[in-house]
């Protein structure tokens, strides 16, 4: 699963446009849009760069969310 932080999402229409763009790129992808968090998670066959480019084509800036790693103790 790839999670992207997407700038500029603010309504249900944005969610629909993003879902459509991802499905045009990867018809079998599972897409989860978290509007309040500003993230899009995609479980599919495309990589983060391809997904970011697809969203850029419809006017959204997207970048991968890097998961936090637990800090090592002493």
Quick synopsis:
The chain is an alpha+beta fold.
Q: How many structural domains does the protein architecture include?
A: 1
Main β-sheet description: 4 strands, antiparallel
Q: What percent of the residues sit in helical stretches (DSSP H or I)?
A: 25-40%
CATH topology: Alpha-Beta Plaits
- The CATH C-level name is Alpha Beta
Parts with pLDDT < 50 across at least 5 consecutive residues? none
Radius of gyration of CA atoms, rounded to a whole number: 13 Å
Overall body shape: globular
In angstroms, what separates the terminal alpha carbons? 32 Å
- Oligomer state of the chains in this structure: single chain
Q: Tell me what portion of residues adopts beta-strand conformation.
A: 25-35%
Overall pLDDT: 91
The SSE order reads EHEEHE
- Work out the number of β strands: 4
InterPro entries: HMA_dom (IPR006121), HMA_dom_sf (IPR036163)
GO molecular function: metal ion binding
Protein name: HMA domain-containing protein
Domain HMA: 1-63
């Amino acid at each position: 699963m790839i999670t992207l932080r997407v700038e500029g999402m603010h309504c249900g229409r944005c969610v629909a446009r993003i879902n459509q763009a991802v499905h045009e790129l990867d018809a079998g992808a599972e897409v989860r849009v978290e509007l309040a968090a500003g993230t899009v998670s995609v479980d599919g066959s495309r990589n983060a760069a391809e997904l970011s480019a697809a969203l850029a084509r419809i006017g959204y800036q997207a970048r991968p969310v890097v998961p936090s790693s637990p800090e090592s103790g002493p």
